[in-house]
Specification:
alpha+beta, two-stranded antiparallel sheet, 101 residues
Length: 101
């Protein structure tokens, strides 16, 4: 298959695929809105890569430093806008936007 375009950005790859310039392997949470609008079609779904994980790891102390608490809060707020992001607590996963954090 000849390469028509290449990019190192998932959002750009999604846009290129929606424009008919080929296939793109992007995270499901990025493709979901375009799939719902009918702009993209999922192919090779059984061969999806495992979900990526992101952890905020810091030492627990009586008082978490304000910088650390602020960063974690900003990270949660940012990730809550991505529909595929999940929050895991005690083995239970819920959408981050619904976790009430």
């Amino acid at each position: 298959m000849p390469v028509h375009a290449a990019a190192n950005s998932w959002s750009v790859l999604s846009e290129l695929a929606a424009a008919g310039l080929g296939l793109a392997r992007v995270p499901e949470y990025l493709a979901a809105p375009a799939i719902a609008r009918g702009e993209l079609v999922a192919v090779l779904a059984p061969f999806q890569p495992p979900p990526e994980q992101l952890f905020a790891v810091y030492a627990r102390t009586r008082q978490t430093p304000a910088r650390v608490a602020g960063f974690v809060q900003a990270l949660r707020a940012f990730l809550a806008h991505w529909p595929g992001c999940l929050y895991r607590s005690n083995g239970v996963e819920v959408p981050l936007a619904q976790a009430g954090l």
